[in-house]
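Exercise: predict the structure of this protein bound to flavin-adenine dinucleotide.
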Amino acid sequence: MSRGGFISSDVIIVGGGPAGAACAWRLRQGGASCLILDRQPFPRAKPCAGWVTPQVWHDLGVSPDAYPHSLTVFRRMSITLGGAAFTLPTLQYAIRRIEFDHWLLQRAAAPFQVHLVRNIAPAVGGGYILDDAFFCRYLVGAGGSGCPVYQRLFKPVFPHHPQTQIVAMEAEFAAPIRDPRCRLWFMENHLPGYAWYVPKSGGVLNIGVGGKAAPLKARGDSLKNHWEALLQKLHRMGLLADDPPPPRAYTYFLRQPHPEVRLADALLTGDAAGLATRDMGEGIAPAIRSGLLAADAILHGSRDHQQLRGIPAYSFPSLLRLR
Ligand SMILES: Cc1cc2nc3c(=O)[nH]c(=O)nc-3n(C[C@H](O)[C@H](O)[C@H](O)COP(=O)(O)OP(=O)(O)OC[C@H]3O[C@@H](n4cnc5c(N)ncnc54)[C@H](O)[C@@H]3O)c2cc1C
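Solution:
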């Protein structure tokens, strides 16, 4: 819709990853108009091991059996912790982000525009203007850890705590799968985090290392050292046939006790809010859950049950209803 020369929508969502797509899906179910702006066309790659928990399928209201793309089911994991190796019975899944995120976005069936959001300004009389081109009443930041909604509106007042910063490096590539087990190595070579080997269906392998940025930096260590150590280990174990393509690095933030997710009519979701779990740095489930909760808050106002599993309530002072 055009309004005063602006492309206008009740809600604009910056970022079409899991948080943004889940938010759009729920908003459209509730009858709200929304527009997703993403700087990249989809399908797009996202550095991520793609490990998802059963909560993801539950929140999406989809059985894993109904997921139409490659899906790997892990009923046990091989873990090494403090030199001890053991097998943990579990039920976890692995998807490929290039497929999963595109599927989520298509499922949301929301208007989508490729646009790199740079400037955000509160509008006189309420709402927000983006890049002098878009107007919305509610703004949802779902742009990952560099989200401009976080950078422009939240960071000056509620910066993420540096101690919660995670750095991660991974590669996903076609390779012969020599071991179908998912393997995790915790705190090897003093890595303040873990390394992983995640075989996926269709002959795709995801390997990587991730950990807390502050302790790495404090002792002059770099993630690259741990990446090299992982490659050597995988070669030694016969799990890698050739060297993988160059890894991609990314940073994001673990959940603080009381993350700020709402300022006026702007809401933050997913990595933009820094919601990854403190134990494993799992971010897909919190991104989806927070996207749904942000949509619920816009549609219906706050609800106590939104305080589930540590995801904060998007508490509006009164029930704000969209037309
Ligand atoms: C190496 C690595 C491995 C990981 N492994 C796992 C895992 O196995 N399981 C798990 O649960 N979590 C994992 N995570 C975390 C997980 O990837 C994130 O928490 C999750 O992607 C967050 O989703 P999101 O929707 O908030 O953001 P994103 O998926 O990052 O999506 C943000 C979107 O916003 C867009 N965007 C950014 N800036 C702008 C802008 N200025 N204008 C317009 N659009 C913009 C981007 O193009 C992107 O499409 C991993 C992270 C890393 C780095």
